[in-house]
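Reopening: Ring-cleaving dioxygenase still failing for me.
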Amino acid sequence: MTIDLTRRTLLQLAGATSLAAAAAAAARAEGTPQGGEPTYASRTPMRVGMVTLRVKNLDVVADYYRDVLGLTVMERSATSAKLGTGGIALLVLEARPEAATEPRNAAGLYHTAFLMPTRKDLARWLVHAASHRVQLSGFADHLVSESVYLDDPEGNGIEVYADRDPSQWQWSEGSVKMATDELNIPDLLSLTNPRVSDYPKAPDGLRIGHMHLRVGDLAQAESFYHGTVGLDPTRRRNGASFLSSGRYHHHLGMNVWQSQGAGRRDDSTTGLAWFSLVTEKQELLAAQEERLRKGGAQVTALANGVEAVDPWGTRVRLIKV
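Support: Ran it again with your exact input. Result attached.
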């Protein structure tokens, strides 16, 4: 497929008049391994596993993640769809045709961030998105990573990004330097042929690099996800907090930009059902479960771990793999 991919085209898809405007649009949302190695985000003691969303129109949303992100439909029925890549499940969609749409000022999902294995993969995907006229909501350089933002057909936020090499991340007193600068689109596109779409499917190494949640109170969220779940703070600024395992820049982002003071979520609405944090360390899982139970959190035993509920009703599964 031959396409005319220019900066102007990408700005039009992002609904922006300049790269600065596109970066500003991404501001509220928040490197390159060689060969087939897991990304840094997947080599840490804990990492994000998968996410489950409740959706009104299963077919439309499943087709979107298949066609736009290139995920493979691994299982599909009248009531659910499981999608992933390289044989790894990343996303489950549960049909809730009668559900009301979760308000954007409620606690819940801000975006699911899909991490490309390499910067070239991100470039290839961007050409693919532009060639299919996918509506974008912003793009930005975060210093630790380069990101493109969009929404699925039901308004669930998505980030598609590639990390810079961890050796380029700047740490100071336990805090990593991040920003929302203009994305250098010409430099990114120099890695591929911008006139030919060369992205037949998601690369096998694609993973969910991080989750970003809307919460009602940052201090309360930090108490749960740091004090109880065990993720370490990496940055806090402008109504947002970032946490990670193993000095990744963040496996979890949380903000109160739209949701300050939000109460408990309504499980009968669309949106995030649950997401998982996985570990290979049994002792880490055991310590998490002990802290959760001592802290009075709502905990449910699973075959390979536990499911806990955060202060706003968002469910997180802590899984041993």
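The mean pLDDT is 92. If you still see a failure, please send the error message rather than a screenshot.
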